[in-house]
From TrEMBL:
This is ABM domain-containing protein. It comes from the Bacteria. Residues 52-98 form the ABM domain. Gene3D superfamilies: 3.30.70.100. Pfam families: ABM (PF03992).
Amino acid sequence: MYYLSRTIVTIFVFIFITAMNIHSETAVEKKATAHRYLRVSIAHWDINLYTADAEQIFRQIETDGVAVFQAQPGFIRYRLMRTDSTTTIAVAEWESEQLGQAGAEKYRAWMRSVGIMNHIKLETYTGDIVAAS
């Protein structure tokens, strides 16, 4: 399972970076992108993600949760992908590791406050973006 999760993360990060950088960048923009920070979290849920309850949670994340991210300094973008009936992969891009860690903690505090953390076990990978297109 560990290797499958790692493979899914690798594929998703590649797709995310490619999709988010489809415009032509200057050398200065590429250098700035190379120093950005990425957080990828795999969530293993205890509910079926194809139910109405899960769809309600996704709507709540899309509105209130994204608002929490957008209020944080250094936040660039967030994506959430459902991979199957019990797994999601989230990717959050930040200007720096320091801002990303602080912002992620505020987002997790929000998830705890609305009960989402009661339904998931998280596996998070972090690091600098070293290549982008």
